[in-house]
Amino acid sequence: MKPLLLSMLRPRLTGHVFGSALFLWPRVTSTNDVLKEMAAEGAEEGTVVVAEEQTAGRGRLGRAWLAPPGACLLCSLLFRPRLLPTHAHRLTMLCALAAAEAVEGVSGVRPALKWPNDLVIGAAGRWRKLAGLLTESGVTGDRLDFVIVGIGINVNVTAEDLAGLAPDATSLMAETGQEADRAALLVTLLDRVEERYARLKAGENPHAEWAARLITLGQRVEATTGTERLVGLAEGVDEDGALLLRTPDGGLHHLRAADVTLAPPVP
Ligand code: BTN
Fold it and tell me: Which residue has its alpha carbon closest to ligand 1 atom 3?
């Protein structure tokens, strides 16, 4: 499989904010952690950290994110947005949409989004996870110092290696039977982020487009939070990305973080 090379990437990113400062490492703990340190030292908006391997890749809810070396796209993007901290999720929405567009542009595979931050392939109930996003931010008072969006896409992971990742994991290679061009995927991703971020800064909110692409909505789901397990109808998402779950007692729950699976049919 082809390694990512800065000499190939840099010329394709001229004129971009995202990627003008691009750092590519053979191995890091976690691209989010590396970029967080850089952000604390004053790195500029648009700085991107990419790695071929992570020794401590992180997913949501404190989970490990596993990826075979050299087979995936593992990257983190730095934003310094003028947004309220409660609106930071707009950047996750924007990046999820950009990642979905990049995947489709490079491979022809059209991923859906699964609340909160997954790119999945397949219909509701039979979805396979292709990618995940992990957003972390630094806040001072009511101001966002930085937002880091980490993106992990399973690209050229063989069917054999997928088994070691997660039971529901898939990759572009598993979906198409072909090796995908990771450099093209990264360049397209940064290009799409750049364009969408400009629109966000001009006042456009990605919420409606993001919500329209969420296959979770309209489904009867089971949501597990740190403290409770709720079953109900995923009715919608609010402006800040929380899932609106209607339980049989009529209650409407705003869930900010949870694991969501399809609930079994009512007996
Ligand atoms: C999830 O689905 O739980 C989120 C996964 C996010 C993984 C990416 S890989 C690049 C970046 N660095 C990390 O440690 N995590 C994110």
Answer: 59
Q: Which CATH entry fits the domain spanning 6-212: 3.30.930.10, 3.40.640.10, 3.50.50.60, 3.90.1530.30?
A: 3.30.930.10
CA distance 204 to 197: 9
| 31 Cβ inside 6 Å of ligand 1 | yes
Compute CA 166 distance to the chain's CA centroid, rounded to the nearest angstrom. Answer: 16
pLDDT tens for each residue of the chain, 267 residues long: 799 999 999 999 988 899 999 999 999 999 999 999 999 999 999 999 999 999 999 999 999 999 999 999 999 999 999 999 989 999 999 999 999 999 999 999 999 999 999 999 997 778 899 999 999 999 998 899 999 999 999 999 999 999 999 889 999 999 999 999 999 999 999 999 999 999 999 999 999 999 999 999 999 999 999 889 999 999 999 998 999 999 999 999 999 999 998 887 776
- Looking at the CA of residue 32, tell me the nearest atom of ligand 1: 12
Q: Is the CB of 32 under 6 A from ligand 1?
A: yes
Q: Name the β-bridge partners of 259.
A: 224
Ligand 1 near 150 CB (within 6 A): yes
Ligand 1 within 6 A of 132 CB? yes
Q: Which CATH class is domain 220-262?
A: mainly beta
| Phi and psi angles of residue 166, each rounded to the nearest 5 degrees, phi first | -155, 155
- State the span(s) of the chain assigned CATH 2.30.30.100: 220-262
